[in-house]
Every structure is written in structure tokens, then in C-alpha cells.
């Protein structure tokens, strides 16, 4: 939980500090966004390779290395005086965060017994929800009482606390299959170019037209190479398990809906509903708060009731909440908008824990590392796809872009709902290892 908190907190806190960093280091605001892009891109391209490495060197060793890399790179970021140094520090920090993120699913799978797995996942979801809510507030407080380098220096004591607990982590059996370096390079190319291409669809279509076909070609070669391997870097073997395949598809749609909502709703609330910055922040905070509140209840229920039904209810509530949000007339009281956002957050929180449980419990224990890496990769890729959908919506219509962005989020939530309806009709989807 300490490692999860610090990796989540770092992303939200760093975003708040971007204007201050640009001003104090005399950096162009358009260039300072690379402080965020460098971190996110490194996480995306390294999650699956590092999850394969973790299965081979052991979860404890990877956790220790990840904490050390994250802590040292945080110190390097705090000491940076140029954009180049800060971006390089963020690249290394993203690598350290990826070393930790690829372990979370597998560690939870091996810490909690199967009958309490949903509860264990819900605790992690609650940590992510709470840190997501508190991150901007903590960042603003740090900038009020100290300079921006403390945004990164605050990670050090949390990392030290997490490092002290390594000896209590489970000793997961290792995978002795030889690491496939060619597959590793293909994975980096496929996911890296896919994310760059999705981000460039609107502003730089020529770049997207170049990156996306190359990403598809690299992905095709990677899948062909991994098809017959016993423990492939890209877990094709896990996608043959129907519970896992359903959970991956539903997760991608769900996180696309979440990110499309978070990108488009601020514009919608400001330009259409006439809310100020503080009110917009509170409305988005209500969503994250609902996720944190709902996670423990969803975790307990996921250990007792069919996952497909719970996930369908969650996806349906998220779509309904977003639909109510854009259906509210201009001039609606703030409380009603907050209630609609709370319903959306309840739906996302109700969906997330049971679906993650299905993904982790459906995979064999000796492939829990790959399942955790796939879970994190699906989340990041879904969020990138949601962002790209909003960019397309804004490019299609300047006046109606925010509404179209929310509609895109609703469509993704309905796609997650449909996936779970099909999953419920498939009796194999309840198998667990």
C-alpha cells in the first residue's frame, strides 16, 4: 500500500506543480508537459517486460529494486535545475514506478487467500482513490509552504517506510523460462508507438498515420512470436482463459470511460454549466471519493456474488451517472451535479474491484506476475484510448466537444456493460485458480 500510494501520489502532485516549475526554471509551458509525458510513457512501455522479469528474479527483489530506483530518481528530480535533467529524472522515476506497478496485482494474489481476494483488491483501490483525491491538495500545500523540489522529495520517507516492509512480502515461486529480449523490444515499440500515435491523432495526424501502423505491425509480430511460448512476455496464454479475457476487455472499456470523463467533464462543467475552477475540482473529487468509499463494499461482495453481475451493475451506474450529468439543464443546483458524479464514481468503484478480482483469480498462481502486469497495462492503455477519443470529439466540434467527449465516455461504459452481460451468459467465466 505504501508503494501504491507513493506511485499514485507522485503523478497527481507533479501535475499541480507544472506551472510553478515552468515559471521558476524559465521553461516554455508547452515544453514542461514533458515532465508528465516522460513519466507516463516510460510506465506504459515497460510494464509487461518488467512483469516478466519479476516472475524470473522474484517479487521481493523486484520490489526492493523498484523502491530504490524510485527513491533515487525522486532525489534526482528534486535536485534538477534544467528541463533536460528533470525529464531524465522523470524517465527513471517512471521506470521505478513501473517496477512497482507490475507487482501490485501479483502481490495481492499471493498475500490474500482466494476467499478474501476481493477485499484485498478493494483495499488497494481505496488507497488509489484516497491518494487521487488528496494528491492535488497535498501538492498545493507543499507549494504554499515550500519550493517545488519538495514535490519530489516527499517521496523519500514513504519509500523508506515501504523498503522496511520487504521482508514481510510473500516469496512467490519464480519462473525459470528464459527471458525473451526480442519480445521485450517488440513490446516497447508496439505500446510506445501506439500511445504516441493515439495522442497525436488530432494535432499531428501525419505522426499518428506513421506510428499506429508500425505499432500494429510490431504487435502482430509479437503475438505470433508469443503464441507457442510457455510463459510469454505478452501473456497470450492468459488471454486464452475466458474469465481473464472478459476481464481484460471490460477493464479496457471501463478505464477508457473513466479517463474520457475526467478529460472532458472539466470543460463541460465550465463552458456549459458555468462552474468555476473550485467547483470543478470538488465535482471531480466527489467521483474519486465515491470510488474510495465503494471499494471495500465491492470487495466484500465480489467474494460472495458473481463477478459479471457486480461489474454489469457498476458499468451501468457509471453510464447512468454520466447520462444524468449531461441531461441536467443549465442552472441546476451544484448538489444535483455532485449527486450525478457520485453515482458515476460509485459505478466505477463497484466495477473496478470485482473485475480486477476476476482477472487475478482467473490466472494460475504461477502466472500472477504476468496477470498483474497485464492488469496495469490494460488500465494505462484504456486511459490513453479515452484521452484520444476526447481529442477526436473536440476536433470534431469546438462548440459541442465537451458534450461529445462525455458521450464517448458513456459509450465506453455501455461497452463495458455489454461485455459483462456476455460474460454472465458464459458459465466458464466463473472458474478460478
Automatic annotation (TrEMBL):
Any idea where this protein resides? Cell membrane
Q: Where are the transmembrane segments?
A: 31-50, 62-88, 94-112, 119-142, 148-169, 181-198, 204-223, 244-268, 280-300, 307-327, 333-351, 388-417
* Keyword Transport (UniProt): yes
| A molecular function GO annotation | transmembrane transporter activity
Its topology with respect to the membrane?
A: Multi-pass membrane protein
Question: Gene3D superfamilies attached here?
Answer: MFS general substrate transporter like domains (1.20.1250.20), Multidrug resistance protein D (1.20.1720.10)
Alphabetical keyword list: Cell membrane, Membrane, Transmembrane, Transmembrane helix, Transport
Q: Which InterPro entries is this protein grouped with?
A: MFS (IPR011701), MFS_dom (IPR020846), MFS_trans_sf (IPR036259)
Q: Where is this chain primarily localised?
A: membrane
Domain Major facilitator superfamily (MFS) profile per the UniProt entry, residue ranges: 1-426
Q: Which PROSITE patterns match?
A: MFS (PS50850)
Q: Which GO terms describe its cellular component?
A: plasma membrane
What's the protein here called? Answer: MFS transporter
Species: Candidimonas nitroreducens
Organism placement in taxonomy: Bacteria, Pseudomonadati, Pseudomonadota, Betaproteobacteria, Burkholderiales
Amino acid at each position: 500500500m505504501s508503494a501504491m500510494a507513493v506511485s499514485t501520489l507522485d503523478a497527481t502532485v507533479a501535475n499541480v506543480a507544472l506551472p510553478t516549475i515552468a515559471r521558476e526554471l524559465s521553461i516554455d509551458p508547452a515544453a514542461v508537459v514533458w515532465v508528465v509525458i516522460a513519466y507516463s510513457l516510460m510506465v506504459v512501455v515497460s510494464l509487461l517486460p518488467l512483469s516478466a522479469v519479476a516472475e524470473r528474479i522474484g517479487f521481493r527483489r523486484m520490489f526492493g529494486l523498484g523502491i530504490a530506483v524510485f527513491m533515487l530518481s525522486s532525489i534526482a528530480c528534486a535536485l534538477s535545475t534544467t528541463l533536460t535533467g528533470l525529464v531524465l529524472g522523470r524517465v527513471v522515476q517512471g521506470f521505478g514506478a513501473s517496477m512497482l506497478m507490475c507487482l501490485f496485482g501479483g502481490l495481492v494474489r499471493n498475500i490474500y487467500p482466494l476467499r478474501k481476494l476481493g477485499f484485498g483488491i478493494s483495499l488497494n483501490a481505496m488507497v488509489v482513490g484516497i491518494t487521487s483525491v488528496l494528491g492535488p491538495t497535498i501538492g498545493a500545500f507543499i507549494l504554499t509552504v515550500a519550493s517545488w523540489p519538495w514535490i519530489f522529495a516527499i517521496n523519500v520517507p514513504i519509500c523508506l517506510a515501504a523498503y522496511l516492509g520487504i521482508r514481510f512480502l510473500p516469496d512467490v515461486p519464480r519462473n525459470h523460462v528464459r527471458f525473451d529480449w526480442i519480445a521485450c523490444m517488440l513490446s516497447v515499440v508496439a505500446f510506445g508507438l501506439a500511445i504516441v500515435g493515439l495522442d497525436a491523432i488530432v494535432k499531428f495526424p501525419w505522426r499518428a498515420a506513421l506510428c499506429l501502423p508500425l505499432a500494429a505491425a510490431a504487435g502482430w509480430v509479437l503475438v505470433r512470436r508469443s503464441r507457442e511460448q510457455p510463459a510469454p512476455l505478452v501473456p497470450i496464454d492468459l488471454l486464452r482463459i475466458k474469465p481473464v479475457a472478459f476481464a481484460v476487455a471490460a477493464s479496457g472499456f471501463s478505464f477508457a470511460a473513466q479517463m474520457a470523463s475526467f478529460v472532458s467533464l472539466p470543460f463541460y462543467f465550465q463552458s456549459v454549466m458555468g462552474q468555476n475552477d473550485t467547483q470543478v475540482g470538488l465535482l471531480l473529487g466527489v467521483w474519486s471519493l465515491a470510488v474510495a468509499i465503494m471499494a471495500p463494499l465491492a470487495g466484500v461482495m465480489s467474494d460472495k456474488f458473481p463477478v459479471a453481475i457486480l461489474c454489469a451493475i457498476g458499468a451501468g451506474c457509471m453510464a447512468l451517472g454520466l447520462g444524468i450529468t449531461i441531461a441536467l439543464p443549465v442552472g441546476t443546483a451544484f448538489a444535483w451535479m455532485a449527486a450525478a458524479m457520485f453515482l458515476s464514481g460509485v459505478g466505477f468503484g463497484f466495477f473496478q474491484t470485482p473485475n480486477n478480482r476476476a482477472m487475478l483469480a482467473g490466472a494460475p498462481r504461477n502466472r500472477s506476475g504476468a496477470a498483474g502486469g497485464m492488469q496495469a497495462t490494460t488500465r494505462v492503455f484504456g486511459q490513453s484510448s479515452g484521452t484520444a477519443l476526447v481529442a477526436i470529439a473536440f476536433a470534431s466540434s469546438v462548440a459541442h466537444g465537451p458534450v461529445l467527449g462525455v458521450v464517448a465516455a458513456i459509450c465506453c461504459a455501455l461497452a463495458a456493460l455489454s461485455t459483462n452481460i456476455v460474460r454472465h451468459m458464459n458459465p466458464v467465466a466463473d472458474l478460478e485458480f
